[in-house]
Write a structure and sequence with these properties.
CATH class: Alpha Beta
Largest sheet: 5 strands, antiparallel
CATH architecture: 3-Layer(aba) Sandwich
Structural class: alpha+beta
Radius of gyration: 16 Å
Helix content: 25-40%
Number of helices: 3
Distance between the termini: 51 Å
Number of domains: 1
CATH superfamily: Gcn5-related N-acetyltransferase (GNAT)
Shape: globular
Order of helices and strands: HEEHEEEH
Length: 124
């Protein structure tokens, strides 16, 4: 490969067992998928928001609460590695928040601030 040329492999999303992997914040339109995931993981409701989600192959597989670190995960798929990734990402966000100091909110790009209030609850 020529110097400075980018590899297609480097541009590909991370994969777990061949499926594309996505770690992202939860948004209101995730409420139904979160309720389903909570139900199949024997919980009455999803953990309190804000939440980080792990999707594999476009399907929600695990969610972690940034408020209390509680987790729900799909018991019919391997999720241990996904939950570990969610915990690592949550720690990265906490570290970045400590470095910035109080009063600064981390929010995903492209989402209006009013959708991302601290303590947002996907069931509301």
């Amino acid at each position: 490969m020529a110097p400075g040329a980018r590899s297609r492999v480097a541009d590909a999303p991370p994969r777990l067992d061949g499926d594309a992997l996505t770690i992202r914040f939860a948004f209101p339109d995730d409420a139904l998928a979160l309720a389903r995931l909570a139900m199949i993981d024997s919980h009455e409701e999803p953990p309190p928001g804000p939440l980080l989600l792990a999707e594999s192959g476009g399907e929600l597989r695990a969610a972690l609460s940034l408020r209390d670190n509680s987790v729900i995960a799909d018991p019919f798929h391997p999720t241990v590695a996904l939950v570990e990734l969610l915990r690592a990402r949550a720690e990265q966000l906490r570290s970045a928040s400590r470095e910035r100091g109080p009063g600064r909110v981390v929010r995903p790009a492209g989402r209006p601030a009013d959708e991302l209030q601290a303590g947002w609850d996907p069931s509301s």
